[in-house]
Amino acid sequence: MSDLYHIVDEIVAQNIGKRIWVAFSGGVDSHVLLHLLATTNHPDLTTIHAIHIDHGLSPDSTSWAQHCAEVAKNLNIVFSCKKVEVKNIASLGMEAAARSARYLALQQGMTENDVLLTAQHKNDQAETLLLQLLRGAGPKGLSAMAKEFQLGETSVERPLLTVPQSTILAYAEHHQLQWIDDPSNVETRWNRNYIRHNVWPVIEQRWPAASRTLSRSAEHCAEASELLDELAQQDLAQLGVDCETGCLPVSKLLSLSSSRCRNLLRHFLIWKQLPLPSTACLHRVIDEVCLAKPDSMPIVSWQDVEVRRYQDQLYFMSPLSKHATHQVITCNGIKEVVFAEDQVLTWQKANEGIDEKLIKAGLTIRFRQGGERIKPQGQSHHKTLKHLFQQWAIPPWQRDRIPLLFGGDELVAVVGYCISDSAIVSKGQQGYFPILKNSK
Protein backbone atom coordinates (compact mmCIF):
# COMPACT_ATOMS: atom_id res chain seq x y z
CA MET A 1 0.00 0.00 0.00
CA SER A 2 3.02 2.30 0.29
CA ASP A 3 2.80 3.05 -3.46
CA LEU A 4 -0.54 4.72 -2.87
CA TYR A 5 0.95 7.37 -0.60
CA HIS A 6 3.54 8.32 -3.23
CA ILE A 7 0.64 9.01 -5.59
CA VAL A 8 -0.54 11.89 -3.39
CA ASP A 9 2.86 13.57 -3.79
CA GLU A 10 2.59 13.21 -7.57
CA ILE A 11 -0.93 14.66 -7.63
CA VAL A 12 0.10 17.68 -5.56
CA ALA A 13 3.33 18.28 -7.54
CA GLN A 14 1.46 18.25 -10.87
CA ASN A 15 -1.40 20.49 -9.76
CA ILE A 16 0.01 23.29 -7.64
CA GLY A 17 -2.54 26.11 -7.39
CA LYS A 18 -5.34 24.06 -8.90
CA ARG A 19 -8.63 23.02 -7.34
CA ILE A 20 -8.76 19.22 -7.07
CA TRP A 21 -11.93 17.26 -7.79
CA VAL A 22 -12.48 13.53 -7.37
CA ALA A 23 -15.07 11.80 -9.54
CA PHE A 24 -16.75 9.87 -6.74
CA SER A 25 -19.04 7.05 -7.82
CA GLY A 26 -19.15 5.50 -4.36
CA GLY A 27 -17.43 2.33 -5.57
CA VAL A 28 -14.32 0.98 -3.88
CA ASP A 29 -11.84 2.53 -6.32
CA SER A 30 -13.05 6.13 -6.09
CA HIS A 31 -13.67 5.73 -2.34
CA VAL A 32 -10.05 4.70 -1.81
CA LEU A 33 -8.79 7.64 -3.90
CA LEU A 34 -10.97 10.10 -1.99
CA HIS A 35 -10.04 8.63 1.41
CA LEU A 36 -6.35 8.66 0.51
CA LEU A 37 -6.43 12.36 -0.39
CA ALA A 38 -8.60 13.34 2.57
CA THR A 39 -6.51 11.60 5.25
CA THR A 40 -2.94 12.02 4.00
CA ASN A 41 -2.42 15.40 5.73
CA HIS A 42 -0.20 16.62 2.92
CA PRO A 43 0.82 20.23 3.72
CA ASP A 44 0.10 21.46 0.17
CA LEU A 45 -3.23 19.66 -0.18
CA THR A 46 -5.96 21.81 1.30
CA THR A 47 -9.43 21.79 -0.26
CA ILE A 48 -10.68 18.67 -2.08
CA HIS A 49 -14.01 18.46 -3.88
CA ALA A 50 -15.94 15.27 -4.54
CA ILE A 51 -18.44 15.18 -7.39
CA HIS A 52 -20.98 12.40 -7.90
CA ILE A 53 -22.92 11.83 -11.12
CA ASP A 54 -26.37 10.31 -10.72
CA HIS A 55 -27.11 8.60 -14.05
CA GLY A 56 -30.61 7.63 -12.95
CA LEU A 57 -30.17 4.16 -14.47
CA SER A 58 -30.76 2.27 -11.22
CA PRO A 59 -33.65 2.47 -8.73
CA ASP A 60 -30.94 2.77 -6.07
CA SER A 61 -29.25 5.81 -7.63
CA THR A 62 -30.76 8.24 -5.09
CA SER A 63 -29.55 6.20 -2.11
CA TRP A 64 -26.11 5.91 -3.75
CA ALA A 65 -25.92 9.69 -3.99
CA GLN A 66 -26.92 9.98 -0.33
CA HIS A 67 -24.22 7.46 0.61
CA CYS A 68 -21.58 9.47 -1.28
CA ALA A 69 -22.70 12.68 0.40
CA GLU A 70 -22.39 11.03 3.82
CA VAL A 71 -18.91 9.68 3.08
CA ALA A 72 -17.75 13.11 1.91
CA LYS A 73 -19.22 14.76 5.00
CA ASN A 74 -17.38 12.34 7.31
CA LEU A 75 -14.14 13.05 5.47
CA ASN A 76 -14.76 16.82 5.61
CA ILE A 77 -14.84 16.96 1.81
CA VAL A 78 -16.82 19.49 -0.25
CA PHE A 79 -19.46 17.44 -2.09
CA SER A 80 -21.69 18.06 -5.10
CA CYS A 81 -24.04 15.82 -7.05
CA LYS A 82 -25.32 16.20 -10.60
CA LYS A 83 -28.19 14.29 -12.17
CA VAL A 84 -27.89 13.45 -15.86
CA GLU A 85 -30.07 11.95 -18.56
CA VAL A 86 -28.31 9.16 -20.45
CA LYS A 87 -29.21 9.44 -24.14
CA ASN A 88 -28.40 7.52 -27.34
CA ILE A 89 -28.08 4.18 -25.54
CA ALA A 90 -29.25 2.26 -28.62
CA SER A 91 -26.59 3.76 -30.89
CA LEU A 92 -23.69 4.13 -28.45
CA GLY A 93 -24.28 1.28 -26.00
CA MET A 94 -24.99 1.68 -22.30
CA GLU A 95 -21.39 2.16 -21.13
CA ALA A 96 -20.45 4.70 -23.82
CA ALA A 97 -23.74 6.61 -23.48
CA ALA A 98 -23.37 6.84 -19.69
CA ARG A 99 -19.74 7.94 -20.06
CA SER A 100 -20.72 10.63 -22.56
CA ALA A 101 -23.42 12.01 -20.25
CA ARG A 102 -21.06 11.82 -17.27
CA TYR A 103 -18.19 13.69 -18.92
CA LEU A 104 -20.55 16.35 -20.26
CA ALA A 105 -21.83 16.98 -16.74
CA LEU A 106 -18.34 16.94 -15.23
CA GLN A 107 -17.12 19.45 -17.79
CA GLN A 108 -19.78 22.01 -16.92
CA GLY A 109 -18.57 24.60 -14.45
CA MET A 110 -14.93 23.47 -14.48
CA THR A 111 -12.08 25.62 -15.80
CA GLU A 112 -8.38 25.39 -16.54
CA ASN A 113 -7.82 26.01 -12.82
CA ASP A 114 -9.49 22.69 -11.95
CA VAL A 115 -8.18 19.13 -12.19
CA LEU A 116 -10.46 16.11 -12.15
CA LEU A 117 -9.18 12.81 -10.75
CA THR A 118 -10.76 9.50 -11.75
CA ALA A 119 -10.00 6.15 -10.17
CA GLN A 120 -9.36 3.66 -12.99
CA HIS A 121 -6.61 1.20 -12.04
CA LYS A 122 -4.21 -1.22 -13.69
CA ASN A 123 -6.80 -4.00 -14.05
CA ASP A 124 -9.19 -1.57 -15.75
CA GLN A 125 -6.38 -0.71 -18.16
CA ALA A 126 -5.80 -4.38 -18.99
CA GLU A 127 -9.55 -4.93 -19.56
CA THR A 128 -9.68 -1.92 -21.86
CA LEU A 129 -6.77 -3.25 -23.89
CA LEU A 130 -8.51 -6.62 -24.31
CA LEU A 131 -11.74 -4.92 -25.38
CA GLN A 132 -9.89 -2.82 -27.94
CA LEU A 133 -8.10 -5.90 -29.29
CA LEU A 134 -11.44 -7.64 -29.78
CA ARG A 135 -12.73 -4.55 -31.60
CA GLY A 136 -9.79 -4.66 -33.99
CA ALA A 137 -8.39 -1.33 -32.81
CA GLY A 138 -5.09 0.12 -34.00
CA PRO A 139 -2.25 1.58 -31.90
CA LYS A 140 -4.30 4.53 -30.64
CA GLY A 141 -7.11 2.29 -29.42
CA LEU A 142 -4.65 -0.20 -27.97
CA SER A 143 -3.11 2.62 -25.96
CA ALA A 144 -6.22 2.05 -23.83
CA MET A 145 -6.72 4.79 -21.22
CA ALA A 146 -4.38 7.76 -21.13
CA LYS A 147 -2.80 8.73 -17.82
CA GLU A 148 -3.98 12.29 -18.49
CA PHE A 149 -6.27 14.01 -21.01
CA GLN A 150 -8.21 17.23 -21.52
CA LEU A 151 -11.93 17.59 -20.89
CA GLY A 152 -12.65 21.02 -22.30
CA GLU A 153 -10.36 23.37 -20.40
CA THR A 154 -9.94 20.94 -17.50
CA SER A 155 -7.20 18.33 -17.08
CA VAL A 156 -8.38 14.83 -16.18
CA GLU A 157 -5.88 12.55 -14.47
CA ARG A 158 -5.96 8.85 -13.61
CA PRO A 159 -3.49 8.60 -10.73
CA LEU A 160 -4.29 4.93 -9.93
CA LEU A 161 -3.68 3.65 -13.46
CA THR A 162 -0.44 1.91 -12.44
CA VAL A 163 -1.93 0.48 -9.22
CA PRO A 164 -3.31 -3.11 -9.22
CA GLN A 165 -6.81 -3.63 -7.90
CA SER A 166 -5.49 -5.94 -5.18
CA THR A 167 -3.64 -2.98 -3.63
CA ILE A 168 -6.79 -0.86 -3.72
CA LEU A 169 -8.87 -3.59 -2.06
CA ALA A 170 -6.19 -4.13 0.59
CA TYR A 171 -6.27 -0.40 1.42
CA ALA A 172 -10.09 -0.40 1.61
CA GLU A 173 -10.17 -3.40 3.92
CA HIS A 174 -7.36 -2.04 6.11
CA HIS A 175 -9.27 1.22 6.65
CA GLN A 176 -12.64 -0.60 6.92
CA LEU A 177 -14.21 1.48 4.16
CA GLN A 178 -17.84 0.96 3.19
CA TRP A 179 -18.51 1.24 -0.52
CA ILE A 180 -21.27 0.70 -3.07
CA ASP A 181 -21.42 -2.50 -5.09
CA ASP A 182 -23.41 -1.71 -8.23
CA PRO A 183 -25.37 -4.90 -9.15
CA SER A 184 -24.93 -4.09 -12.83
CA ASN A 185 -21.19 -4.71 -12.43
CA VAL A 186 -21.86 -8.47 -12.39
CA GLU A 187 -24.16 -8.52 -15.43
CA THR A 188 -22.07 -10.33 -18.03
CA ARG A 189 -24.23 -9.16 -20.94
CA TRP A 190 -21.93 -6.13 -20.94
CA ASN A 191 -18.64 -6.88 -22.68
CA ARG A 192 -16.41 -5.39 -19.99
CA ASN A 193 -18.16 -7.34 -17.25
CA TYR A 194 -17.93 -10.53 -19.31
CA ILE A 195 -14.17 -10.08 -19.61
CA ARG A 196 -13.86 -9.15 -15.92
CA HIS A 197 -15.79 -12.15 -14.58
CA ASN A 198 -15.42 -14.88 -17.21
CA VAL A 199 -12.20 -14.19 -19.11
CA TRP A 200 -9.87 -12.34 -16.77
CA PRO A 201 -9.82 -14.92 -13.94
CA VAL A 202 -8.72 -17.60 -16.45
CA ILE A 203 -6.01 -15.33 -17.86
CA GLU A 204 -4.76 -14.36 -14.42
CA GLN A 205 -4.66 -17.97 -13.27
CA ARG A 206 -2.36 -18.85 -16.17
CA TRP A 207 -0.44 -15.53 -16.24
CA PRO A 208 -0.50 -13.96 -12.74
CA ALA A 209 1.31 -10.83 -13.95
CA ALA A 210 -1.11 -10.27 -16.83
CA SER A 211 -2.39 -6.89 -15.62
CA ARG A 212 1.16 -5.57 -15.41
CA THR A 213 2.29 -6.92 -18.78
CA LEU A 214 -0.86 -5.85 -20.62
CA SER A 215 -0.60 -2.37 -19.13
CA ARG A 216 2.99 -2.27 -20.37
CA SER A 217 1.75 -3.23 -23.85
CA ALA A 218 -0.72 -0.34 -23.67
CA GLU A 219 2.18 1.99 -22.87
CA HIS A 220 4.12 0.69 -25.89
CA CYS A 221 1.07 1.28 -28.09
CA ALA A 222 0.73 4.79 -26.67
CA GLU A 223 4.33 5.52 -27.71
CA ALA A 224 3.68 4.09 -31.17
CA SER A 225 0.54 6.21 -31.44
CA GLU A 226 2.55 9.34 -30.55
CA LEU A 227 5.06 8.52 -33.29
CA LEU A 228 2.24 8.04 -35.80
CA ASP A 229 0.81 11.38 -34.70
CA GLU A 230 4.19 13.04 -35.31
CA LEU A 231 4.41 11.39 -38.72
CA ALA A 232 0.92 12.65 -39.58
CA GLN A 233 1.95 16.16 -38.55
CA GLN A 234 4.98 15.97 -40.84
CA ASP A 235 2.87 14.67 -43.73
CA LEU A 236 0.32 17.41 -43.16
CA ALA A 237 3.09 20.01 -43.41
CA GLN A 238 4.34 18.27 -46.57
CA LEU A 239 0.85 18.65 -48.05
CA GLY A 240 1.01 22.37 -47.30
CA VAL A 241 -2.00 22.46 -44.97
CA ASP A 242 -2.61 22.48 -41.22
CA CYS A 243 -5.07 21.05 -38.71
CA GLU A 244 -7.30 24.14 -38.91
CA THR A 245 -8.24 23.63 -42.55
CA GLY A 246 -11.39 21.74 -43.45
CA CYS A 247 -10.02 19.92 -46.48
CA LEU A 248 -6.97 18.09 -47.86
CA PRO A 249 -5.46 18.18 -51.36
CA VAL A 250 -6.28 14.83 -52.97
CA SER A 251 -3.35 14.55 -55.38
CA LYS A 252 -0.79 15.27 -52.65
CA LEU A 253 -2.57 12.93 -50.26
CA LEU A 254 -2.39 10.09 -52.79
CA SER A 255 1.33 10.75 -53.29
CA LEU A 256 1.89 9.24 -49.82
CA SER A 257 2.20 5.49 -49.34
CA SER A 258 -1.16 3.81 -48.66
CA SER A 259 -0.36 3.27 -44.97
CA ARG A 260 0.76 6.88 -44.47
CA CYS A 261 -2.31 8.08 -46.36
CA ARG A 262 -4.63 6.14 -44.04
CA ASN A 263 -2.64 7.28 -41.00
CA LEU A 264 -2.98 10.94 -42.01
CA LEU A 265 -6.72 10.56 -42.61
CA ARG A 266 -7.26 9.01 -39.17
CA HIS A 267 -5.28 11.69 -37.39
CA PHE A 268 -6.90 14.48 -39.40
CA LEU A 269 -10.33 13.26 -38.28
CA ILE A 270 -9.12 13.15 -34.67
CA TRP A 271 -7.79 16.72 -34.94
CA LYS A 272 -11.15 17.81 -36.35
CA GLN A 273 -12.86 16.02 -33.41
CA LEU A 274 -14.86 13.84 -35.79
CA PRO A 275 -15.73 10.16 -35.20
CA LEU A 276 -13.29 7.68 -36.69
CA PRO A 277 -14.57 5.36 -39.44
CA SER A 278 -14.23 1.59 -39.59
CA THR A 279 -11.32 0.19 -41.57
CA ALA A 280 -13.68 -0.68 -44.44
CA CYS A 281 -15.12 2.86 -44.45
CA LEU A 282 -11.64 4.39 -44.48
CA HIS A 283 -10.76 2.30 -47.54
CA ARG A 284 -13.96 3.59 -49.19
CA VAL A 285 -12.82 7.19 -48.61
CA ILE A 286 -9.69 6.44 -50.64
CA ASP A 287 -11.22 4.16 -53.28
CA GLU A 288 -14.57 5.86 -53.84
CA VAL A 289 -13.78 9.51 -53.06
CA CYS A 290 -10.07 10.18 -53.53
CA LEU A 291 -9.80 7.99 -56.64
CA ALA A 292 -13.11 9.12 -58.15
CA LYS A 293 -13.22 10.89 -61.50
CA PRO A 294 -12.54 14.64 -61.20
CA ASP A 295 -16.01 15.58 -62.50
CA SER A 296 -17.92 13.26 -60.14
CA MET A 297 -19.45 14.18 -56.76
CA PRO A 298 -18.64 11.20 -54.52
CA ILE A 299 -19.57 10.99 -50.86
CA VAL A 300 -18.83 8.51 -48.05
CA SER A 301 -20.57 8.93 -44.71
CA TRP A 302 -20.61 7.37 -41.23
CA GLN A 303 -22.15 8.51 -37.95
CA ASP A 304 -22.18 12.33 -38.14
CA VAL A 305 -19.45 12.66 -40.78
CA GLU A 306 -19.54 13.20 -44.54
CA VAL A 307 -16.46 13.10 -46.75
CA ARG A 308 -16.87 14.74 -50.15
CA ARG A 309 -14.62 15.73 -53.00
CA TYR A 310 -14.63 18.76 -55.28
CA GLN A 311 -11.86 19.20 -57.82
CA ASP A 312 -8.63 18.34 -55.95
CA GLN A 313 -9.95 18.93 -52.43
CA LEU A 314 -11.21 16.36 -49.93
CA TYR A 315 -13.79 17.89 -47.56
CA PHE A 316 -14.60 16.62 -44.05
CA MET A 317 -17.91 17.89 -42.73
CA SER A 318 -21.04 17.27 -40.68
CA PRO A 319 -24.12 16.18 -42.65
CA LEU A 320 -25.82 19.04 -44.44
CA SER A 321 -28.95 20.32 -42.76
CA LYS A 322 -32.20 20.84 -44.65
CA HIS A 323 -32.27 24.13 -46.52
CA ALA A 324 -35.28 26.02 -47.84
CA THR A 325 -34.02 27.39 -51.14
CA HIS A 326 -37.29 29.23 -51.92
CA GLN A 327 -37.39 31.39 -48.78
CA VAL A 328 -37.36 35.17 -49.17
CA ILE A 329 -36.26 37.42 -46.29
CA THR A 330 -36.83 41.18 -46.25
CA CYS A 331 -33.84 43.32 -45.28
CA ASN A 332 -34.31 47.10 -44.88
CA GLY A 333 -31.48 47.98 -42.50
CA ILE A 334 -28.07 46.92 -41.26
CA LYS A 335 -29.42 44.67 -38.51
CA GLU A 336 -28.18 41.09 -38.26
CA VAL A 337 -30.22 38.43 -40.03
CA VAL A 338 -30.21 34.97 -38.43
CA PHE A 339 -30.76 31.92 -40.63
CA ALA A 340 -32.13 28.56 -39.56
CA GLU A 341 -28.79 26.81 -40.19
CA ASP A 342 -26.91 28.50 -37.32
CA GLN A 343 -25.64 31.25 -39.58
CA VAL A 344 -26.01 35.00 -39.33
CA LEU A 345 -25.61 37.78 -41.89
CA THR A 346 -23.80 40.81 -40.48
CA TRP A 347 -22.76 44.14 -41.98
CA GLN A 348 -19.19 45.44 -41.91
CA LYS A 349 -18.53 49.11 -42.57
CA ALA A 350 -16.04 49.47 -45.41
CA ASN A 351 -14.76 51.91 -48.00
CA GLU A 352 -16.08 49.59 -50.67
CA GLY A 353 -19.52 48.30 -49.85
CA ILE A 354 -23.22 48.57 -50.58
CA ASP A 355 -24.64 52.06 -50.40
CA GLU A 356 -26.61 52.41 -47.12
CA LYS A 357 -29.42 54.20 -49.00
CA LEU A 358 -29.93 51.10 -51.12
CA ILE A 359 -30.07 48.89 -48.02
CA LYS A 360 -32.61 51.14 -46.27
CA ALA A 361 -34.70 51.31 -49.43
CA GLY A 362 -35.23 47.59 -48.98
CA LEU A 363 -33.39 44.47 -50.12
CA THR A 364 -34.49 40.87 -50.15
CA ILE A 365 -32.38 37.85 -49.28
CA ARG A 366 -32.95 34.90 -51.55
CA PHE A 367 -31.11 31.80 -52.66
CA ARG A 368 -30.04 30.48 -56.02
CA GLN A 369 -32.79 29.27 -58.33
CA GLY A 370 -30.75 29.14 -61.53
CA GLY A 371 -29.97 31.69 -64.24
CA GLU A 372 -28.96 34.56 -61.90
CA ARG A 373 -26.50 37.10 -63.31
CA ILE A 374 -24.44 39.89 -61.74
CA LYS A 375 -21.91 42.46 -62.91
CA PRO A 376 -19.23 42.32 -60.17
CA GLN A 377 -17.52 45.52 -59.10
CA GLY A 378 -14.75 46.54 -61.48
CA GLN A 379 -15.81 44.20 -64.30
CA SER A 380 -17.23 45.25 -67.64
CA HIS A 381 -19.74 42.47 -68.26
CA HIS A 382 -22.42 40.53 -66.41
CA LYS A 383 -21.59 36.94 -65.47
CA THR A 384 -23.78 34.03 -64.47
CA LEU A 385 -23.59 32.74 -60.91
CA LYS A 386 -22.75 29.32 -62.31
CA HIS A 387 -19.66 30.76 -64.00
CA LEU A 388 -18.64 32.74 -60.91
CA PHE A 389 -19.10 29.78 -58.56
CA GLN A 390 -16.86 27.71 -60.79
CA GLN A 391 -14.34 30.56 -60.93
CA TRP A 392 -14.36 30.86 -57.14
CA ALA A 393 -14.06 27.05 -56.75
CA ILE A 394 -17.12 26.87 -54.49
CA PRO A 395 -18.18 23.23 -53.94
CA PRO A 396 -21.56 22.42 -55.55
CA TRP A 397 -23.22 21.49 -52.23
CA GLN A 398 -22.55 24.99 -50.87
CA ARG A 399 -23.81 27.00 -53.85
CA ASP A 400 -27.53 26.88 -53.13
CA ARG A 401 -26.88 27.94 -49.51
CA ILE A 402 -25.09 31.22 -50.22
CA PRO A 403 -27.41 34.18 -49.51
CA LEU A 404 -28.06 36.50 -52.44
CA LEU A 405 -29.11 40.13 -51.99
CA PHE A 406 -31.62 41.56 -54.46
CA GLY A 407 -32.80 45.10 -55.01
CA GLY A 408 -36.09 44.42 -56.72
CA ASP A 409 -35.23 41.86 -59.37
CA GLU A 410 -31.59 42.91 -59.64
CA LEU A 411 -28.92 40.79 -57.95
CA VAL A 412 -26.77 43.29 -56.05
CA ALA A 413 -24.55 41.04 -53.92
CA VAL A 414 -23.40 37.45 -53.47
CA VAL A 415 -22.83 37.48 -49.71
CA GLY A 416 -19.19 36.98 -48.85
CA TYR A 417 -18.02 37.08 -52.47
CA CYS A 418 -18.92 40.13 -54.52
CA ILE A 419 -21.05 43.26 -54.86
CA SER A 420 -22.52 44.46 -58.14
CA ASP A 421 -20.98 47.48 -59.79
CA SER A 422 -24.32 49.31 -59.60
CA ALA A 423 -24.73 48.88 -55.83
CA ILE A 424 -21.26 49.95 -54.73
CA VAL A 425 -20.77 53.30 -52.98
CA SER A 426 -19.10 56.18 -54.79
CA LYS A 427 -15.34 56.47 -54.49
CA GLY A 428 -14.26 57.93 -51.13
CA GLN A 429 -17.56 57.06 -49.40
CA GLN A 430 -18.25 54.32 -46.88
CA GLY A 431 -20.77 51.58 -47.35
CA TYR A 432 -21.51 48.17 -45.83
CA PHE A 433 -20.14 44.78 -46.81
CA PRO A 434 -22.41 41.76 -46.04
CA ILE A 435 -20.65 38.89 -44.24
CA LEU A 436 -21.95 35.42 -43.36
CA LYS A 437 -20.84 33.99 -40.00
CA ASN A 438 -21.71 31.03 -37.78
CA SER A 439 -24.03 32.08 -34.97
CA LYS A 440 -22.57 29.51 -32.54
Structure description:
With 440 residues, the chain is α+β, with helices and mostly antiparallel strands. It has helices at 2-14, 28-39, 61-74, 89-92, 94-107, 122-134, 139-142, 165-174, 191-206, 210-238, 250-254, 258-271, 279-290, 356-361, 385-391, 396-399, and strands at residues 19-23, 48-54, 78-83, 114-117, 148-151, 154-157, 247-249, 299-302, 305-310, 313-317, 329-331, 337-339, 343-350, 363-366, 373-374, 383-384, 404-407, 410-414, 418-419, 431-438. Strands 3-2-1-4-6-5 form a 6-stranded mixed β-sheet, sandwiched between helices. The chain has a 5-stranded antiparallel β-sheet with strand order 11-14-17-18-19. Strands 7-10-9-8 form a 4-stranded antiparallel β-sheet. The longest helix is centred in the middle third of the chain and has 29 residues, at 210-238.
Summary keywords:
Chorismate Mutase Domain, subunit A, Rossmann fold, 3 domains, six-stranded mixed beta sheet, 20% strand, 440 residues, five-stranded antiparallel beta sheet, alpha+beta, 20 strands, elongated
Strand content: 15-25%
- By CATH, the topology of the largest domain is Rossmann fold
Write out the CATH superfamily name of the largest domain: HUPs
Sheet with the most strands: spatial strand order:
3-2-1-4-6-5
Q: What's the mean pLDDT score? A: 90
The top-level CATH class of the largest domain is: Alpha Beta
Count of DSSP helices?
16
Integer tally of domains: 3
List low-pLDDT spans: none
Rg computed from alpha carbons, rounded to a whole number of angstroms: 29 Å
